[in-house]
Each structure stands twice: as structure tokens, then as C-alpha cells.
Amino acid sequence: MSTVGASAQVRKRKPSAEKVEKNEATRLALIEAAAKIVGRYGYAGCSIARVTAKAKVAHGTFYLHFKSQQELFDLLLPTLGARMLDKISDAVRNATSLLEVERRGLEANFAYLVAHPYMYRLMMEAELFAPTAFRAHIGMLVERYVRSLRRSLKDQDPPLYSDIELEQVASMLMGARSYLLMRFCAVDGKIKPLSPDILDTYLRFVATGLKAGPLAPLLAAQELTSVPEPTPKPAPRRRAKATVEA
Questions:
Q1: What is the mean pLDDT of residues 90-113?
Q2: 113, 122, 162, 170: which has the highest count of C-beta atoms within 10 A?
């Protein structure tokens, strides 16, 4: 075998399982360090120098795992958001009703945020600093929430909500959770546990809504008032005046 051939074979050799595992551990350490930096200083203060110092690796090690600071930002929320959703999924497994799913899910969601308070700022600032990651995270949240709702409501015959309506319901419930977090639990960079009375209010709302009255009269009135606007008539064409030559 020639020297050139031997060199090519060495270059093509796959890294050992131990090496792959070590590389992945370093990559995750950088991601977790960056998330904690964002939690304290925001995305704007999350420099590569701070991240590598927090992860206790050399500055150049960063570029073995990420092409740029933005590539790291774009991985933070999808990576750590998926980890949070896995915890919530574990908590709701074997729940026997929609309300039980919601109770367990909300408790697990807020418990995770209490244990990992940096997630709050990571999510709140992502739309500005990592819009691609933000959209991916929201899409993942909605997709998994819709699957959960569909499983919980599978025995309804006929189904109360279509697939697109389930997506709308999931978005409304996600909004409720976000504002409960902002209004009652996020204080000075820390997350307080969700109080039992707020959990009870949320569950009563999911169970019964606002009981604002029957919907049929409102829908009927809406149909009566939704009269299509008349199509405007075209303006009459003006006849051109004849030109008289002198």
C-alpha cells in the first residue's frame, strides 16, 4: 500500500465511540453554559468568551462545535426546549383525562422553569436574537400540544374540534400559560412556583370556560350582520369632445 493510500485511510477512519461521546458532552456543556449566560446577561451579553469560560473549555474549542455565535443561539431554544417538553411528557404519561393532563402538564412546566430559571429569558428574547429558533420552538410546542389534546379527546363522537381548531385551542392555552408565568411567577430573574389557587383557576377555565352564555344566538346574529358589501358600480365613461380644426 502506498504512503498516500495509507494516509487517506487514516483520515477516513471514524472517531471512536468514546471520542464521539466526549465531543457531544462538550457541545452540550457549551449549550448549557450559553443558556445560563443568556439567563443572566441576555443574548446581547452572551459572548463566546463568557460561554467558554463558563463551560471551562479553551476559546478555540467553541469553533470545533459551532461555526458562529448565531449558530449557537439558533440551537439553544430547540435543544433545551425539547428537554423541557420531554419532562412534561413524562409527567402526563398515563393521565386518564384532559383535566389530569392539563394539571400534570402545567405543574411539570412550571416546576421545570423554577429549576431552570434561565429558560424564561431564553424564550422571551429569542424572537429578537434567534428568530429561526423561536419559530422552531413555537412550532414544536404547538405540534406536541395538539397531539396531547387529540389523545385526550379521542373518545369524542363526533369530535368537538377539527384539527385546525385544535391548533387554535393549543395556541390559546399556551398563551394562558405564558401570561400566568409573566404576571404571577417571574420575579427579578427568578421563577416562583405556581400557587395552587392559580392552578385551580386555570383548570376551572379549561373545564368550563367563562360560561358567557349560549353560543348559538351570537353566531346567528353574526350571520345576519355579515352582509356582503355591494360591488361598486363602474364609473360612467366620459365621451371625448370632438376637436374642431380652425
A1: 94
A2: 122
